[in-house]
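no rush on this but wanted to send it before i forget. theres a chain ive been looking at and ive put its sequence and its fold in token form underneath. i want to understand how the tokens follow from the sequence so walk me through it. thanks a lot i owe you, the record is right below:
>
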Amino acid sequence: MNDMTRDQQLLEEFKEGLDKDGPVVLAQRVAELEGEVKLLNEALDASEEEGSSIDDQIRKLTEDLEAAQTERDSAIARAEKAEGGEKKAKASLTKATTPAKPRKIGALDEDKALAGDDLRKAIDKADEVQIAFSDGMREVHGIAPINVAGDAWGDHQFGLVLKEDATIEGPREGSSVTIDGYALILDGKHVAYARRSTPLQVAPGQRVSLKDDIIF
């Protein structure tokens, strides 16, 4: 009987009538075991809850980390953009070759014209940026278009303004011409048109400064 557990000894003694209090003792032992099982279940539940809490903390930390990484990447992109802006080529305006035949350029339908950020992005991407002068229907004969390069554009309350002084010269011969507006042509495609508030008359050989006047 030495190999028996205390519970087994109590049970055997109860069967043999050696211990009249056996049932009471056994009942107490059962109650003790039930209490221990209850405590173990409660501990298990607490452990599961703690595990869930840890999972929540890990998930929250992961979200915070991803947000921090996103903010870091955004800050790097802004810094690189600012640095790139500082390194932009110096603005320059040059007289372009006059087309053999005046191009048909004038006001664009709203759904075909670029403006705002879309226009600035398109200018930045374009290999060739050109401003042509229109009588409202066609390119003005006798006034050469202008090629624009570098950091030549600035913000204006009405859009993008050409910061550089675009001085034009009237036709060498013939009569005066009328400029209704300015056409912006990117890589050969007409993308924006700026109509003047009043048409501009340019006499043959006359030089006219268009400083802060070309706004898209």
